[in-house]
Amino acid sequence: MQVIQVSDRPAYQAFYSVAGRLLFVETHDRHLRNLIGRLFDGWQLTPVSFPDRSPDIRINFSCGEAPFELPLHLNQFEIAEGGRCYTDGVDLYLALRDSVLYLVSGTPVVVNVSLARVTGPEDPVPATIASFAVCAALRRFGLFDLHSAGVVNPSSGNGILIVGSSGSGKSTLALQLTRARWPYLSDDAVLLSLADGEVHARGFRKFFAVSTQGDSRFKTCFEPDIAFGCPRLEHASPGLLLFIRLSGEEKTRLCKLTQAETMMLLIRACPWATYDTAIASANLEALSALARQATGFNLSAGRDLLVRGRAAELLRGVATEGHPYNES
To answer: Does domain 145-316 have CATH number 2.40.128?
Structure first.
């Protein structure tokens, strides 16, 4: 039987900032102290030692306690990773296996996360539900998560977002580009924000996680700025969107998209833009601005992208602002 040590004194407290927003993270469970610290240290959040104002977001973690009672009468829908969300259009509950988070909109936004159990460092549920908690809170402040890798063309300075689901090849393509020392944002998720009509993207996760020997169950984790000496940037303005899938063919193919097609694929890749009704209007506005700002392509990734230097060569030939692009 697992014994959870709980005391009146917090076992872990920390402040982080991102894009001008201040987060406060806390747990009273000693069992969670190191786990929560590792999770938040792995994201692109800036630690704040002495905050000079109240936090915009408070996230509280507990473990082994009875989870919140789910209000089954609310609107509900399935989400990625096998979870389910319940919402009244303002607040929301999210259930993932036996763990639950409860977000309460207000000042500050409060997210309570109840983990049913933590089986060990390889247990994916704590990381998944913690990232859901952070991203759901940040959406209330105009920072919208998108399942995408992000790199920057070193010649033009334009951001390139590589959009795709798990296993689509986005981390592999981002890996090839960072090996060529292209600056990068992330290999997995970015946060989009809209200001003065321009969309900016910033990375969410610090490290890359790349499948080894084609087996998605085992991944190698590393930070490209340390491994390859390429710079990690805080944010970039996207000029190119690549919607990637593995083709199984020898040669990579690109097909330019219309603005309407780009918008449709962005909505498909960002389901919270319609599911999370409290922020849906602002989220869709940001996606619409991104579809106008960036040129979209379908990218059918072939085996040739694994040849060192091929990815950089291919993308140098793709235009973002009226330059010719390669449809071979």
So the answer is: no
